[in-house]
Design brief:
By secondary structure, the chain is α/β, with parallel strands linked by helices. It has 12 helices and 7 strands. It folds into 2 domains: about 230 residues, Spore Coat Polysaccharide Biosynthesis Protein SpsA, Chain A, CATH 3.90.550.10; about 60 residues.
């Protein structure tokens, strides 16, 4: 297959010396450039690639200190933009992601159907069985949290790092504000939603071999929860109050207030009834129950509107002039 587009692959490299050369060798000839980002790897994987890889497409980028997977990917993104790459694919160097699927991630972007594509390991239920149960449960929880914080209710497997993005979208993202470590994949979804970019899941099969994950679930649960809550409130403010106003902008605050009032008023009278031994009147019960019911209804109505508001018009179509202008300004 000949090179028909400026497609680049970014491979963050940290403790993947045993697998990275095999990953590079499997990258097809349709790829113009391969950026291997040595994220201050203790195994000196960047030097290892320079010494033992003869592929002319490979360019090794090195960090003086460890920035995390997000920081490594963004270094690759910046290099790809500087060299005029059109679509940039992020591929892990541990061998869990099949390089043969690269064009499956690229084609929806080149055809104008998507701005960003990401892998989903949960399409084939038979193959899902090989995944560790702890990872399945963790992914389900993280996926729900990501739907709330990012607004992409149609996506699953948010921590999947097999992704592709169009350069015009990248030029509009605040790369310096995106999380540099393991929250990177989810944080970029939040940033993409603020652009109303179209994100599409791509079915893929997970591979589990002798590689060791650097991600420790117990150490990131609290951090992920805090960042998801932060992104949720920022997204709601941006989309429903700063950039636009709709019925949903009223439903959410009124729903929360009524739910809170019903819960507090009902709890107070329930405790008072227990202490005094007197049964609450029908009016008191109704005054507690009605706000709870109406508040829940308003919140569900808001969620329904939010789910229907998933971006469906690609951002990068017709953005070439704006992107070129931004690129020129950045260069200056």
């Amino acid at each position: 297959m000949s090179i028909v587009n400026n497609i680049a692959v970014v491979i963050p490299s940290y403790k993947v010396r045993a697998h990275v050369l095999d990953v590079i060798n499997k990258v097809g000839p349709e790829i113009s450039r391969i950026y291997v980002v040595d994220d201050s790897c203790p195994e000196q994987s960047g030097l290892f690639v320079e010494e033992f890889c003869s592929d002319p497409r490979v360019k090794v980028l090195k960090h003086e200190r460890n920035l995390g997977v997000g920081g490594a990917v963004m270094t690759g993104y910046k290099a790809a933009i500087a060299e005029g790459m059109e679509v940039i694919v992020k591929l892990d160097g541990d061998g869990q992601m099949d390089p043969d699927l690269i064009m499956d991630f690229v084609e929806p972007i080149l055809s104008g159907e998507a701005d960003y594509t990401k892998g989903n390991r949960f399409f084939d239920l038979e193959k899902v069985r090989v995944m560790p149960r702890a990872r399945l449960f963790g992914n389900a929880v993280l996926s729900f949290m990501a739907k709330l914080s990012s607004g992409y209710w149609n996506l699953f497997d948010p921590t999947n790092g097999y992704t592709a993005i169009h350069r015009d979208v990248l030029l509009h993202l605040p790369l310096s504000k995106i999380s540099e470590r393991y929250f990177f994949e989810t944080d970029i979804l939040f940033r993409l939603n603020t652009l109303r970019a179209v994100v599409v899941d791509v079915p893929m099969e997970a591979k589990y071999g002798d590689e060791i994950s650097n991600l420790k679930i117990s150490s990131i649960v609290g951090e992920f929860l805090a960042k998801h809550v932060r992104n949720f409130f920022k997204r709601i403010f941006y989309n429903y109050y700063l950039r636009d106003m709709s019925v949903a902008s009223i439903e959410l605050p009124f729903g929360c207030l009524m739910l809170l009032f019903g819960a507090v008023f009902g709890s107070y009278n329930w405790i008072k009834s227990i202490e005094t031994g007197l049964q609450s009147s029908a009016g008191t019960v109704m005054l507690s129950a009605l706000p709870l019911i109406v508040g829940m209804h308003l919140i569900l109505a808001f969620l329904g509107h939010d789910i229907r508001s998933v971006p469906d018009r690609p951002f990068h179509r017709g953005k070439s002039r704006v992107a070129n202008k931004l690129e020129k300004n950045n260069a200056e």
